[in-house]
Amino acid sequence: MSEAMETAVLELRHVGKVFDAGKSTQFRAVHDVSLTVRRGECLGIVGESGCGKSTLARMITRLTDVSEGEVLLCGRDISALRGRALRNAYRDVQMVFQDPYSVFSPRTSVGTFLEDGLVYHGILRRREARQEAKRLMELVELPDELLDRFPHQLSGGQLQRVVIARAVSTRPKLVLLDEATSALDVSVQKQILKLLVELQRLYGLTYVLIGHDLAVVRTIAGRIAVMYAGAVVEELDAAELEAAMHPYTRMLLNSVFSIHDRGRKIIDLEEMRVSHGHGGAEGCPYRERCMFAGPVCAKRRPPLEEKRTGHSVACHNIRAVRVNEGQTGND
Fold first, then answer.
1. What's the CA gap between 105 and 120, in Å, rounded?
2. Residues 6+ apart with CB under 8 A from 278
3. Which of 41, 176, 188, 277 could cysteine-pair with 157, CB 3.0–4.6 Å?
4. pLDDT in tens, 162-212
5. pTM of structure
6. Mind listing the domains of the chain with CATH numbers?
């Protein structure tokens, strides 16, 4: 077994998701995604709203069933788990959502919220969980006096810290961060990102960070996977982003994707359906927006192929993109 396989926390093998769209039609939201996340690293998944990245996250956490493929956690396929086995898997895979208020019950105090996770997973008894909740608050740089307060009495940044505290409380093998900072102010966003980096250092956490803001994602991600219309179109090291080859990734790099653009939506669901097709149309889904599209792009979908070590791209016309960007070298 290779070293990469031995240290893999998450493996996605040809994962897909198909939804019923009514009138005997189907909509393929995620198409043939294969990714590997190694222990202690942070993989960033970026793309526009509607590209399928959040659906992918929900399949990894088993909040949404997988239609095709396998989701392996530390070598074990969790895509078909049910009952107690699924409950146990929830301890190992935790998720931090964009809106922290959506996670809380307005009648549940911060302390009870933290304690419940520890008790539910059988980690501690209720009496012991209270002391652990205090330690968790310190870990995320919040005073333990907030334990007796309710969600409406905390700011959005404070609540997101509490949610992160609960996520790491079970010592998960994987933490998914789905737009976890995009609803926060700029200064608060930076603080949360700094906290995530520190927690990763302390506990050796493995992250999958999902977002539309490439500038934010690359600040803590070691690798980037770019999604478009349900598929990964490019995967490369975050440090090598300027050498991106796919025209869509180049567009993202040249766009103003900042904290101030949250809510911006370049591609909507209807457009995604047209370009991606019900159940998967032939050809490249990006061709209608691509200035380099040729006849072959309408005939067959480009496979995700490694163009150089650690850098994979799904594009038929890489040479044309590279010439246009003033790059040289062989495919």
1. 16
2. 21, 25, 26, 27, 28
3. 188
4. 999 999 999 999 999 998 888 788 888 889 999 999 999 999 999 999 998
5. 0.86
6. 1-74+179-184+206-331 (3.40.50.300), 83-172 (3.40.50.300)
